[in-house]
Amino acid sequence: MTDTSVEPGFLAVWHTFRIPIIASLATLFLLGRFFTQQKRLKTPSSSSLPPSPRLEKPVSEKESIAIPSLDFKPTSQEKQKPSGPKRILGNRQFKGIDKQQQNDQLAKPSFIKPIIFFATLTISTQKRAQWLVEELRAAAQAKSKGSDKDYGLLPPELHDLSEVDFDDYFVSAPKSPPNSLHTRYVYCFLIPTYNIDTIIDTFLSHLDEIHNDFRIDTAPLSGLAGYSVFGFGDKEDWPTEEEGFCSQAKDLDRWMAKLTGKKRAFPLGLGDTKSDAEASLKEWATGLTEVLGEIAETGGLGEGVPGSGNSLESDEEESEDEEDEQRPKKSKKPQAVVDLEDINFGGSNKKARASPLPVDFTTQSSQSSNNQSTLKEMVPSTSPTYAALTKQGYTIVGSHSGVKICRWTKSALRGRGSCYKFSFYGIKSHLCMETTPSLSCSNKCVFCWRHGTNPVGTTWRWKVDPPEMIFKGVKEGHYKKIKMLKGVPGVRAERFAEAMRIRHCALSLVGEPIFYPHINEFVGMLHDEQISSFLVCNAQHPDQLATLNRVTQLYVSIDASNRESLRKIDRPLHRDFWERFQRCLDILREKRNEQRTVFRLTLVKGFNVEDEVKGYADLVEKGLPCFVEVKGVTYCGTSSSAGAGLTMKNVPFYEEVVAFVTSLNDELQKRGLKYGIGAEHAHSCCILLASERFNVDGKWHTRIDYDRFFELLHKEKTEGISFRPEDYMRETEEWALWGNGGFDPTDQRVRKKGKNRDRVVTEE
Ligand SMILES: Cc1cc2nc3c(=O)[nH]c(=O)nc-3n(C[C@H](O)[C@H](O)[C@H](O)COP(=O)(O)O)c2cc1C
Ligand code: SF4
């Protein structure tokens, strides 16, 4: 009875609820599978990548040689590792740090012994190698004179690659002799290039084999203190690197980077045997000797990219195609805008925050001189702004200045092209320092690539650092950053040497340079050292602009053609921003016969391009600048830009920039204003409109004769003779003219991969 009564009841329940029950069970089942799958994906052993066949292939115990050169206790996890093939190891690696860091942590002052290897067929390289031996021997002698230090440079050894057994030197790094445990080795190579079969091919194949031998660590030479290569070739028959000039030296440099774990001590040097070989070798040897001394003293290669540490550079660097390099990881989280008004500098600052010192920076110097000690620092080293800016690669100098290496400097050091300022004005990027004496700005532009971390404010109410201190600090910071790039693949020795003398300064980094009360003194110091000055201001500080002394080229940013658009795009802090902007244009007009004046337009699709051509033409008519630089915006993906609704869609394509410039040019012609399209740099989406004042006999002269500028400046200072922008102009290079693209043919173009390749972005 019970059974029969239960069964129909159960069936009835089943029929009523079977669909939800089945659905629930199916959901539970799918959820279960999903979680198991996720867990498996997170387990490294189940990576979808096939394991390296080199690591999988077993070898007998006899075949294996293990030379862990560091005393290192294995972790319990390592002890349990299945016995696989043992490998020849240059160094044991600590967890969480790369080899370079590991070596540097262990680095102590040492005795450095250079080992010079050369190859030759027609003897010229052998002779040059013998010369190098003498140079290094002399350096070793000079350094050891009267010194009883426990580090130093030892006399070099010389080896002909055709006579050495490669296994003796290139399977593992030589060990220190038992009587001098602090001795370490640096390999120096001098090799010619031959497109016929020579010992060099055998040698390079040997390096290839070592690198790819599964029994040997991929970087078995990481025990070396460093290496450097110099190549000889013939430019008459192999005029460019693409055509094979010094190609084997380049290959050797790459192999050694791999085998040593990127321990390039000094950049690759190249010399044309029929012209500059001796001079280039000399320059390279000087740099190398200096570095050898540094390694001996510090025991390491210093900071920089692997090979010389990590270099932090402009944000846009990430968009560049880099094939052989480790890039420092950057925080993906966009930083929030840090407004100085919002920062409490500790202590009871409430009153100050509620009513900031109402000191307009234009009147600042007189007021601040009385109470410097009570004023706060703009960017104290303990502040979040300081942390954020240094994380982005800025070197903060004093309490309100900064310096940073731009991506073009690195590109130029590698022979991959300079920024548009080379095409337009002749500035080689590796000779250019990018800096600002004021990290604070009075705008919060939507496209600012500074990650919104720069301080903002309308008034200068901070402690003021003296210009001498800033000048010294920014130069030191710049040179230090350049030195950090010496191990970057592709950096050329001759460019590296040139970069150790700053020739140009772009005062345009972050913030507003004319915000700094001693900007005139600072610019004077640049000029005294024959460093040209390009100063960019945001057209918000007319009084300061009016009293600004002569600079080599003076810019104002023109980010919109009308009040509403400017408010939206620049988000100015001043309520009378439009009036300030207009006054700045008037001042620029007055200055146009004394110095080169430039309008810089940054096009942001959807913000300041559409229907604004006439508005921009009005502004040009008002300010009559010598030049109008037009460039497509750089997308930086920060919170401030995202918050303003900026996406990749707002970045114009080059054709769109071209269309805009053409219409603006037409509009200027219609109004009888004498302008024309002077030059272009398609690579960074940038075009230059120039006043006909810079067109001589039908030829554009947008470049600058820097030597002439300094001559004239000197005359002005000493004899009171003023000069005009036309007095220091130079003819524009053919390849930079409108229609020719603007890429220096002597540099090697590297195209960016990926879908946004046409939206190659630019600096600043
Ligand atoms: C047959 C031959 C092939 C060469 N191939 C190249 C080459 O591909 N690329 C290059 O830059 N130089 C090339 N050169 C130039 C040599 O690298 C250059 O003359 C070098 O200084 C020779 O050094 P050595 O006298 O030590 O052998 C070649 C020279 C010869 C004779
Ligand atoms: S001008 Fe600007 S982008 Fe060009 S090299 Fe100098 S700092 Fe870099």
Automatic annotation (TrEMBL):
Pfam families, sorted: Flavodoxin_1, Radical_SAM, Wyosine_form
Q: Does the keyword tRNA processing apply?
A: yes
Q: Which CDD domains match?
A: Radical_SAM (cd01335)
- Give me any GO biological process, just one: wybutosine biosynthetic process
Compositional bias, Acidic residues, is annotated for 313-325
Query: Which pathway does this polypeptide act in?
Result: tRNA modification; wybutosine-tRNA(Phe) biosynthesis
Q: Identify the InterPro entries for this entry.
A: Aldolase_TIM, Flavodoxin/NO_synth, Flavoprotein-like_sf, rSAM, rSAM_sf, tRNA_wybutosine-synth, tRNA_wybutosine-synthase
Residue stretches of biased makeup (Basic and acidic residues): 54-64
Q: Which spans does this entry mark as compositional bias, Low complexity? A: 362-374
> Which GO molecular function annotations are given, in alphabetical order?
4 iron, 4 sulfur cluster binding; FMN binding; metal ion binding; tRNA-4-demethylwyosine synthase activity
Domain Flavodoxin-like: residue ranges: 114-289
Q: What is its EC number?
A: 4.1.3.44
Q: Which UniProt keywords apply?
A: 4Fe-4S, Iron, Iron-sulfur, Lyase, Membrane, Metal-binding, Nucleotide-binding, S-adenosyl-L-methionine, Transmembrane, Transmembrane helix, tRNA processing
The segments labelled Disordered in the record are 42-93, 297-377, 741-764
Q: Catalyzes what?
A: N(1)-methylguanosine(37) in tRNA(Phe) + pyruvate + S-adenosyl-L-methionine = 4-demethylwyosine(37) in tRNA(Phe) + 5'-deoxyadenosine + L-methionine + CO2 + H2O
Q: Where is the Radical SAM core domain?
A: 425-674
Q: Does the keyword S-adenosyl-L-methionine apply?
A: yes
**Entry's transmembrane regions:** 12-32
Q: Which cofactor does it need?
A: [4Fe-4S] cluster
Domain of life where this protein originates: Eukaryota
The family annotation for this protein states: Belongs to the TYW1 family.
In terms of PANTHER family, this protein maps to: S-ADENOSYL-L-METHIONINE-DEPENDENT TRNA 4-DEMETHYLWYOSINE SYNTHASE, S-ADENOSYL-L-METHIONINE-DEPENDENT TRNA 4-DEMETHYLWYOSINE SYNTHASE TYW1-RELATED
User: What is the recorded name of this protein?
Assistant: S-adenosyl-L-methionine-dependent tRNA 4-demethylwyosine synthase
What is the source species? Talaromyces proteolyticus
